[in-house]
Amino acid sequence: MTQSLLPSSARWFLTSVVTYMIPNGIQMVMLSYLMAIELNQSPGSFGITQMVGQLPLLLFLLMGGWVADRVDSRRWLMTLQTIGLIMPLVLAFLVWRNAVTEGSILLYAMVWGVVGAFSLPARDGLLRRVAGSNVQRMVGLAIGTQFGAQMIGQAFAGQATRLGTVTVLVLEAALLAAGIFVASRLPGGRAKQAASKGSLLNELGAGLTMIFSTPVLMANYIISSGMGVFFGGVFLVLIPLAVRDLYHGGASDIASAYVMFAAGTLMSIAWLTQRGGARRPGRALVTTQFTACAALLPISIGISIWGFYLCIFLWGLSAGVAMTMSRTIMQEQAPSSHQARIMAALTLMTTGGGPLGAFITGQAIDSAGVRGAVLMPILGVLACTMASLATYSMIKLDSRSHA
Hints:
The protein has 17 helices and no strands. It is mostly helical. The chain has one domain (9-185, 199-391): Growth Hormone, Chain: A, CATH 1.20.1250.20.
């Protein structure tokens, strides 16, 4: 399926991903650059900063799924895009006035985290509505679009020293403003069969209850949790601190590492999409946990910066398959009545696990240095993978939407 053959609703859906993920890529690099390079935070402090900036995802993702199952998705995403554009403009003004502080940068990250906690489940809940019978391929297209757009944002933010921080932040706000119009073209209404009654706490836990009572969902969730916490710490903390401490780089070098990861992810997703997905997504998911760990291992022995970029690229290749398969399994196995909540529970660990991973990784680097700390996420991911296989063997799980 090519872009031109997608229905109109699917094209607008992917465009909405673009108008959210380019600003997300900008924010990711700018936060790391300002805190790690400009303010020269210690590894422990930088890990705590990243953890606090990511906390809204951990705190509000399940609530975001509960809300997404009950509101008009189109209007809700328009509202979130509007809220998201405020903080980049505020931070741009503070930078222009030379009044930016650690607190203002952290507030910028936290506001964006709140927006993400509510917008990610809303888009996840829309995916199956716009995908029709092509769920696996749509998941691949969505993740590919997500990382492609994020890569563009990261590359642009890497030019902050040349273009100026204010220019980068204003562009971020402009893209979020464009996203308001794009969101207005998405399908309206709320999810079918969404429950209309029930206490907030009961409904927030409904997605997790469904996961823990369904072996295949639980096994998938364990692996996803390992990726979210341990690989999330690598992404948020180890990459920028490796660039700073091992290679003495700056914003463009941090951006280059993130772009290499996104390039690997895009390449593997493009390959998956071309071949119609994977017939056995569980087998592909488990295999990529081992290949991802193998890709990161050389960083622990000391390599050149180009070798470091290659490791991140190979890690991205595995990550593209892993994320696509993990989300495909959840999308295919989750009942439509709990769709957004179950996907929010998945995102809680794949994305919301970042705060815990950032804290753990920051402390590990403080204790063992960047090279020694690489072993921690590798062992953590391998342990989660083995625990998942002990819960339910996904090796022979067949996809319902494999082409």
